[in-house]
Amino acid sequence: MNFVLMVWRQRNAKSKGRFVPHLVTDISADTSFMEMLDVVNEGLILEGEEPIAFDNDCREGICGTCCMVINGRAHGSQHGTTVCQLHMRAFRENDVITIEPIRAKAFPVVKDLVVDRSAFDKVIAAGGYISVDTGSAPDANAVPIPKDDADLAMDAAACIGCGACVATCKNASPMLFLSAKLAHLSLLPQGKAEWRTRVLNMVREMDKLGFGACTNERECEIQCPKEVKVHNIGRMNRQFLLASLLERIR
Amino acid sequence: MALDARIPSGPLDQKWDRCRSELKLVNPANKRKYTVICVGTGLAGASASASLAELGYNVLTFCLQDSPRRAHSIAAQGGINAAKNYANDGDSIFRLFYDTVKGGDYRSREGNVFRLAQLSVNIIDHCAAQGVPFARDYGGTLVTRSFGGAQVSRTFYARGQTGQQLLLGAYSAMMRQVHEGRVKLFPRREMLDIVLVDGRARGIIVRNLITGQLESYSADAVVLATGGYSNVFYLSTNAMSSNASAIWRAHKRGAYFANPCFTQIHPTCIPVSGHCQSKLTLMSESLRNDGRVWVPKDPADKREPSQIPEDKRCYYLEEKYPSFGNLVPRDVASRNAKEQCDAGRGVGGSGFAVYLDFRDAIARNGVENIEDNYGNLFQMYERITAEDPYNVPMRIYPAPHYTMGGLWVDYHLMSAVPGLFVLGEANFSDHGANRLGASALMQGLADGYFVIPYTVGGYFAGNEFGKVDTSLSAFKGAAAEAEEKTSRLLAINGKRTVADFHRELGMLMWDYCGMSRDEAGLRLALRKIPEIREEFWKNVTVAGAPGEFNQNLERAGRVADFLELAELMVRDALHRKESCGGHFRVESQTEEGEALRDDENYSYAAAWEYTGVDSEPVPHKETLQFENIKLAQRSYK
Ligand SMILES: Cc1cc2nc3c(=O)[nH]c(=O)nc-3n(C[C@H](O)[C@H](O)[C@H](O)COP(=O)(O)OP(=O)(O)OC[C@H]3O[C@@H](n4cnc5c(N)ncnc54)[C@H](O)[C@@H]3O)c2cc1C
Ligand code: FES
């Protein structure tokens, strides 16, 4: 198959970027999107040009490294799929494919398609955990967890932290990411003790980092490669409201 | 130097207690005066960082990815073993210990493995308390499955994402310590060298991958938890950034490399589909609980699998190993798949694949049950191959997956360099010649949560530490060497890409140091590798500049190290004339074609000492003592 790629090229965080065309010729439909980029880069390197910088690692849809925006959609248009799981058979012959980095104030561009997502780590550091020191845990079966709760917690915990929700949202809001972590932890009995401080600290950290707020566009849910659901955001908003009230009363 | 593994004497089940009670303690008020560098944030590194910081040490933690949560542990699917005996099916700490030693074909240390089995129980407790959403029953208790050749059900799991959930647990525990100010995080840093002062590990040199600048950090001890080196084969189930560089460079500074040829080829991976292929995807071994492996009886039978009737199918594992069937250990399953394909019975376009069929399991348990257990794996398979495994059998083939070899460490997980500790897949300690399924996650977390917090303390309390900072000549010298290597790579300006060399090396290793090895092939590889290496340093082309974000340069440095490590692997494979576990020497097999050990001559770990790029390494032998297990020919019939 043959394609024209319009790729965002930007030397570093400070320089200005622009779209640059790259031709892809004669590539098998079963090639993955990442491998297609590898082929383009091999060509560029041999011609003495700068290869395209793009982030990726596991190439099997679990590490969350590879998020980029393809034809205007985070991870491309295939439902429930990361870029690294995308194959060229999902495109049509001679398609023009635009590829750009996630665009959000909180995720500055490092180079070309690579962005800095350390803001997500900061949000987690603010409270995305259950405070338990190594060695102090009771027997794992001491606290039974209803299967439905465990399953729901697992659905939320499946988030891979790729940033597709931020990339998709017109407000660059990370609420799907944040609410998934909150849901995962607060659905489990072990996580209940800290629910109030957790939601307050994480939401406040998010505001501080320059992310936008959610205005219920629900696009994040459609674009999430792990199909994390927006009902988590509803749960989070309720928790935040209640925790803020309780904080004021005390 | 004589190898002292420092395994405590006394009965097996008291060794670890004894070790702990005899280790000196650091006064709690003094802990914050010690700094530990931890390289790697996989299960081993993240859990070590978290628990060392909880104790009060200052921890500096480094990783390659933009976030520590992306370490390759995230990709583990199947599960984690623990001798909880929740299933009431006869499991015990001793049985887990026994299975692991036997599975490793009697090439691991009894003391280490027993400790691992003991700690497995604490791991599950701790992870559940952290909020790891393990699979549960309707009554709310944890469920287990049997996995990777075990005859008891002791594998805990979180759907098909066990590694992800365990890693997120360890990552969040570490982030809690970041918040407390006790862990300082350095993502997108690549360790280029360790720095020794007065013979002890006291720091590291890293490249800041964003700015390209070299940075030096000093500490009182260095912990490496940088994962495995399967990417020496080019195509493997590891992530693109997985590498051997950190441990290889430590090796060059004096750490011994043990059993480098012990690598594991996993039987159930999605087969190679084209020449652009950059990595292979694992299909969890848990699939073998319900999937049946078969090939057509007649090599000429090219019908669609659904058209091939029952009596024309050869369920070779079930036929050959009636008591373990599809659940034989990985090395056995892999070798048998290769044997079938070499005999022409392979399926798919390339002929290098066998079927893994869920037809009978779906008929027996229903689609929902299969979806519940393997949904995300089936989806992953479908994404890659565009085939629906609910209707068409999966096609699978073995692929490099795990490296049992690694830096030699003693019972305290300290390498031959004092103050340099090695955890997780990066060390060699617990899996012998073959790792059983669901035991790497267990080992990484045991090392990080429960072993290193004690042994690092013992090291601190038992030694005097002068103050060291990065202005010392040892740091300046190591940084200058690293810089020189980078400039050399960028100056070559040859005609072949880094990936091209990597591919060539990988193919050579796969052919001659892969699933089966023989003297002639290994000798050929030993001749070829230095040739490829020489050409690499004359004819590679590396794009870009040193002082910027440069992924091609990162990769070039890693491939340069693989080109050296590969030679050591081949030497090790050549010197070990027996077959054991994943190391199958064609010359040493039973009449039935199984790996034939030679306990009289090879019951030891080979720890290699580095002596220079083009000079022969020196092997040191650590003899393995078996006091509690009788060595036997492994049989899974
Ligand atoms: C696809 C797959 C499935 C698996 N499934 C299972 C399973 O079901 N059960 C099981 O028990 N095991 C499984 N394993 C094995 C297991 O996942 C690994 O052995 C284990 O997770 C390794 O953990 P680790 O902490 O040692 O290293 P990793 O998780 O690989 O982490 C390595 C860390 O080191 C860092 N690093 C590496 N080099 C450098 C450097 N030079 N400088 C700085 N940082 C560096 C990386 O950034 C990363 O943070 C699986 C493995 C794979 C590949
Ligand atoms: S590269 Fe890991 S999710 Fe895509």
Describe this protein's structure.
The complex is a heterodimer of chains A (250) and B (637). Chain A starts with a strand and ends with a helix. The model of chain A has no long low-confidence stretch (mean pLDDT 97). In chain A, strands 2-1-5-3-4 form a 5-stranded mixed sheet. Chain A is 37% helix and 11% strand. Chain A has helices at residues 33-46, 118-125, 147-157, 164-168, 175-186, 189-192, 195-208, 219-223, 231-249, and strands at 3-9, 18-24, 69-70, 73-74, 96-100, 109-111, 114-115. Chain A folds into 2 domains: 3-110, Beta-grasp domain (Ubiquitin-like (UB roll), Roll); 117-249, Fumarate Reductase Iron-sulfur Protein, Chain B, domain 2 (Orthogonal Bundle), CATH 1.10.1060.10. By secondary structure, chain A is α+β, with helices and mostly antiparallel strands. In chain B, helix 2 (43-55) packs parallel to helix 5, helix 3 (93-103) packs across helix 4 and helix 14 (519-539) packs antiparallel against helix 15. Chain B is built from 16 helices and 21 strands. In chain B, a hairpin with a 5-residue loop joins strand 7 and strand 8 (214-218). Among the domains of chain B are: 266-401, Alpha-Beta Complex (Flavocytochrome C3, Chain A, domain 1); 473-600, Fumarate reductase/succinate dehydrogenase flavoprotein-like, C-terminal domain (Methane Monooxygenase Hydroxylase, Chain G, domain 1). In chain B, 36% of the residues lie in helices and 15% in strands. Chain B is of the alpha/beta class. Chain B has helices at 15-22, 43-55, 93-103, 110-130, 162-180, 245-252, 316-320, 330-342, 359-365, 367-385, 440-461, 473-492, 498-512, 519-539, 551-575, 599-602; strands at 35-39, 58-62, 80-81, 155-156, 183-186, 189-197, 200-208, 214-218, 221-224, 257-258, 263-269, 292-296, 313-314, 354-357, 394-403, 406-407, 420-422, 496-497, 540-541, 604-609, 618-623. A 5-stranded parallel sheet of chain B has the order 5-2-1-9-17. A 5-stranded antiparallel sheet of chain B has the order 11-15-14-12-13. The interface between A and B is large, with 81 and 80 residues. The structure holds flavin-adenine dinucleotide (FAD) and FE2/S2 (inorganic) cluster. Flavin-adenine dinucleotide is lined by residues 39-45, 62-65, 71-73, 75-80, 162-163, 189-191, 225-228, 237-238, 242-243, 245-246, 282, 401-402, 424-426, 438-441, 444 of chain B.
